[in-house]
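User: Could you check the structure of this?
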Amino acid sequence: MTLERQQIPVLEVDATPLRVPELVEELSRYIQDGSTRTVLGHNLHSVTLTLSDDGFRNLYERSDVVLLDGAPVLWLWGRTGNAEGPVMDYRLGSTDWLPALDQVRGLERIAVVGAGAEANAGAVSRLQAIVPGARVTGFPGAGWDAELEEAAVAWLHREQPQLVLLGLGMPLQEEVLQRRLRSLPPAVYCAVGGAIEQLAGIQKLAPRWLGRLGLEWAWRLLLHPKRVAYRVFGEPWVLLWLLAARRLKRRA
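Assistant: Sure, the predicted structure tokens are below.
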């Protein structure tokens, strides 16, 4: 069964809007199937990369699941009228669905790839508490380079996980999937960004009421101004230019 793709108005990208129970059901089916799958998410950063980078776009087009992550993406999709119930229920950042992994049937082996050693170990411990019947192992990703990438690939082949949480940040984690997916062992590969640090309690989550107002960007800007400033103030203009250029090209 292939999930229905739905276009996000204005942004001209596709997603597979799911709520937590629906994602759990898909993950259970993928685990039972035992083949290679990918789970990604769309926010304005990923949309900008999708519209400007062929490799990134191809990865998203081939992905099995593309969740609605960022609030602007969610709101624009909400204009389609396809939501069953509250539109906000379809916003699934990684930390929204990871606590439900205990509901995924047949999940016995989880790998956590990314973040520093302390955050990685903390996320492994947290996931062991969430899914007590699973074996959870970790591979830190600080200082990621070609040599570490080779070591991570070899480690995954030894571990043979069913579910891999890849938290190297965007776009590095997606670039790794582009380079390596065909040579990796069969598993469900989920790009989870900073969720490893959040699971470990090292990076503080924004209050949920801020998320419902679409203001998590302000929280991240406050905590990590250097890391987030360009995405908040600069990248939206790049995205507008890309969208305008595509429309002008079609008219021409």
